[in-house]
């Protein structure tokens, strides 16, 4: 693969082939980074102590299940989805329910107010890129955030870590979330370090 960002190379259903999915799943560096980012997302969710775990969480763009495994280990019940069957095939069935779904088409649609929270690691930036001539990024973002807002209980949070391709993507994602009713916004960890800087879209659905 080239040095370009994955979302600029090929659609996720093409980029994450069986070979690429296996490579991703067996990378110790990926596991370390994913664990740290998932733990940070959990911290940002600020899940209430009452009722106690298990909370019902959604793992958006779950890939090979690294984040799902961590959430499950914390005692939560997890619904995980990803657009790539080869990536999902690498995940353990013991770590929650898995399904193939496209975030830009609404992703996993559940009964309103069902989810206690949602996390995502390195996925939502794909919504900003049209991978086919029929795709419209703004429409895909709206579909995703609308379904997510509907699925979360009022006061429920989403902590979505992403790698923006410039300030414009940060702004457009935050605006798309706000347009469907989310409050909150972008949080940047280590803002003064180009290497360590991490972006999170931390959102609350309705009033707490």
From TrEMBL:
Residue ranges constituting the Methyltransferase type domain according to the UniProt record: 58-159
GO cellular component: nucleolus
SUPFAM superfamilies: S-adenosyl-L-methionine-dependent methyltransferases
GO biological processes: rRNA (guanine-N7)-methylation
Pfam families: Methyltransf_11
CDD domains in the cross-refs: AdoMet_MTases
Protein name, as recorded: Methyltransferase type 11 domain-containing protein
């Amino acid at each position: 693969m080239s040095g370009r960002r994955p979302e600029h190379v090929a659609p996720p259903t093409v980029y994450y082939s069986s070979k690429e999915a296996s490579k991703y799943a067996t990378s110790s560096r990926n596991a370390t980074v994913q664990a740290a980012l998932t733990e940070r997302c959990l911290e940002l969710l600020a899940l209430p102590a009452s009722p106690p775990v298990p909370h019902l969480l959604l793992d958006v763009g779950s890939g090979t299940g690294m984040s799902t495994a961590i959430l499950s280990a914390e005692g939560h019940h997890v619904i995980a989805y990803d657009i790539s069957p080869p990536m999902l095939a690498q995940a353990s069935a013991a770590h929650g329910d898995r399904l193939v779904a496209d975030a830009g088409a609404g992703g996993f649609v559940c009964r309103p107010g069902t989810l206690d929270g949602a996390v995502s690691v390195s996925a939502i930036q794909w919504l900003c890129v049209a991978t086919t001539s029929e795709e419209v990024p703004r429409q895909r973002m709206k579909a995703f955030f609308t379904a997510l807002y509907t699925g979360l209980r009022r006061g429920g949070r989403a902590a979505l870590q992403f790698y923006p391709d410039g300030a414009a993507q940060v702004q457009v994602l935050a605006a798309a979330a706000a347009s469907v009713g989310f409050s909150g916004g972008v949080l940047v960890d280590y803002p003064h370090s180009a290497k360590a800087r991490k972006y999170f879209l931390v959102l609350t659905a309705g009033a707490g």
